[in-house]
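ok trying again, last paste got cut off:
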Amino acid sequence: MRIVIAMSGGVDSSAAAALLLEQGHECRGITLELNRKTQGAVNNEIADARGVASRLGIPFEVLDRRELFGETVVREFCESYLRGETPNPCVVCNRYVKFEALLRRAEELGYDAVASGHYVRREYDGAAGRWILRKARDLSKDQSYVLYSLTQGQLARCLFPLGELTKRQVREYAAAQGFANAAKRDSQDICFLPEGDYGAFLERYTGAPLTPGDFVDPQGNRLGTHKGTARYTLGQRKGLGLALEQPGYVCEIRPAENIVVVGDPALLFSRELMARELNLIAYERLERPLRCKAKLRYRQTEQWATAEQTGPKELRVVFDEPQRAITPGQAVVLYEDDMIIGGGTIC
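nice, full thing came through this time. structure:
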């Protein structure tokens, strides 16, 4: 098989490339240039990926998709915050930029598939006639939450060689291959926001300062002045700058009124959510309410719930137990045991 490998310069994609080459596949490395962060950091990542490709003796190229990334991921990131949401740019990037760009390039070059270093397992369900995704064997590294939005067409041409391996095994394998990045730290930052100050980033992006407004309690009493609604997220306690008798938490964000509601943490708990942009992997459609488990954020343990499809791209999820800070803009992902059912964007 002829396979394009998504190479980020990290240990995971490097090990994935070596494994596939070892299995006898014809491989080609591609690094996607996606953002305009510090040029030195970009160059270092490209250099690391190019070095691994050279060591493996495979062709390598850099694919500039910065314009697409900016129009798709960065714009949605900023608009989501300005709507009072908390976006998940990695989900958007995986579906609409990374895999789509790599699959198109693979098709142009006459390659059969695209592989990445994500920790997840792909299988074909012959009875259902669908590709399915399962959690990685190494649950501490499982990345199924950020891949729920991949379509059947994309999954049919994607490979995940690391799904059966632990992170320790991957590092040991990379070291045995002599890769200089075998001990390289995993990136934890949003790639276009390494400094983490998304408020300042929003101001640079929009060209205008965020507008201060009122912190209020649930009864509407003014508590103080905030620095712009987009600087806050549900459940936030630190960084509010309020002197209150008891700790206050962000319980609601109202960008249209330029108000941030601060109150008791008990107000953050609810059982029900609606989600848009539904993407199902295991099923074509949920024909009836489904008992499953669901998670609201990457590191959360799944919780029992009932999911019901309410429209072509709409989902209603009711949890057995109240959940803290169900946050618009984040993803809700559904599971049956270790299989991903699908998910959507909380609205």
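cool. Residues 89-109 form the longest helix (21 residues). Helices lie at 11-22, 39-56, 66-82, 89-109, 152-155, 167-176, 198-206.
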